[in-house]
């Protein structure tokens, strides 16, 4: 052989998933192969992208329910502000999205930044604020499916989603109080 002898390249052994990576693998293993789960998760992802679905619902509510217009406009503003807060936090924290080989990424994302989940943030704010004019238990109905969808899709760690829910709740509380003051309610 010549002086530049050949040596086999040994791939790094795959490190078994642990911690939040393991949690994602468990969620994906339990749910991703069930009929309709990935399609529903992708649909929620597209609906929640940049809070556009929540903005659309809030605008529709403001148009069809003049009596509750202020509440619907507050819900739209809250969803937008929650999304904006998540984006700012993402840019400060700069945590990358899950990338362990055992985690399937099942949807495209606009950035590589993960913390917090903007979908969970805007959904929580929208659900809390839309509950006011509708009288429906929207946080219990809307937040868990959106949060779980982010894990099924493999684009967020559980802590990203939980933090997004917390940030969204804080934004909703602030916007709700401000909307109440503007509307003459205390």
What's the helix-strand series?
Answer: HHHHHHH
What is the structural class? mainly alpha
Helix share, percent: 55-70%
DSSP E strands, number: 0
Report the total helices. Answer: 7
Report low-confidence residues grouped into runs of 5 or more: none
User: What general outline do the C-alpha atoms trace?
Assistant: elongated
Distance between the termini: 86 Å
Q: Report the portion of residues in β strands.
A: under 5%
Question: What is the arithmetic mean of pLDDT?
Answer: 91
Profile the largest sheet: none
Task: Walk me through what this model shows.
The chain contains 7 helices and no strands. Helix 2 (about 35-50) packs across helix 6 (about 140-150), helix 3 packs antiparallel against helix 4 (about 70-95) and helix 4 (about 70-95) runs antiparallel to helix 7 (about 160-180). The model has no long low-confidence stretch (mean pLDDT about 90). It starts with 18 loop residues before the first helix and ends with a helix. Helices cover about 65% and strands about 0% of the residues.
